[in-house]
Amino acid sequence: MLRGQKALVTGANSGIGLATAIALGRAGADVVVNYVSDRDAAEDVVRRIEGFGVRALAYEADVSDEAQVTGMFARMLEEFGTIDILVANAGLQRDAPATEMTLAQWQKVIDVNLTGQFLCAREAAKEFLRRGVVPGVSRSAGKIVCMSSVHQVIPWSGHLNYASSKGGVLMLMETLAQELGPSGIRVNAVAPGAIRTPINRAAWETPEAERDLLKLIPYRRVGDPEDIASAVTVLASDLMDYVVGTTLFVDGGMTLFPGFATGG
Ligand code: NAD
User: pTM higher than 0.90, yes or no?
Assistant: First the structure.
């Protein structure tokens, strides 16, 4: 599905990013596995991707650091020649009630979740514009998939910084899609619901917590990273070539106002 394409996945040594990097490799793409800590985990992802007969490279960079991001793209172009797919996935939480949230907690989440996506998207778009469409590789000059969240539309008490960052990702994605569409570049987002990863371990690790969580999910199962990885893979492929500026919710129905299931 993605043979001959070059992909970069940020935060690719854990959770959703890890599953996505592997899914893209399985679909035939060469993959840069970005990580900020735990090199061993990143190298393990590289080995798993290489098992599909494609190339992979682990690269350490903090997505919120401009120089590290430009360095990462320079290395990718040197190593793989170009980039066709960016999955801007890296993200984190620093939770606190609004009145107790420190500026550092606010800033860290905005820096990584929003500014990090901007910096990576900017560098990917420069290369997409330079190179243009390559017939036989993809109908598009390049694809960006922003990892958003159901919290781009669902307010989330105790997580003001995180929800604000994902609301920002929505406008980042849509504005980029509008601006870059005429150049043949597709920008879209995937918005996961509750996915079983380290970021939200507290929400699913005890049976009581999982039971509460399932009340918010009409489809009554917690998602797996592979649920998101397959959505990203299809969205980045030419099967979705006419999909531009859209958020694909992959959430078991979490955004269907489940509290109203019994009439409200
Ligand atoms: P995770 O904690 O397993 O993975 C996050 C990854 O981002 C890790 O590899 C981490 O090292 C990396 N990262 C953090 N800061 C970074 C930085 N400065 N530079 C580079 N990488 C950095 O969590 P996850 O659930 O896999 O989260 C991935 C994305 O999915 C995030 O954007 C998150 O907001 C989003 N998301 C997750 C869920 C969920 O339920 N798990 C739901 C909605 C959205």
Answer: yes
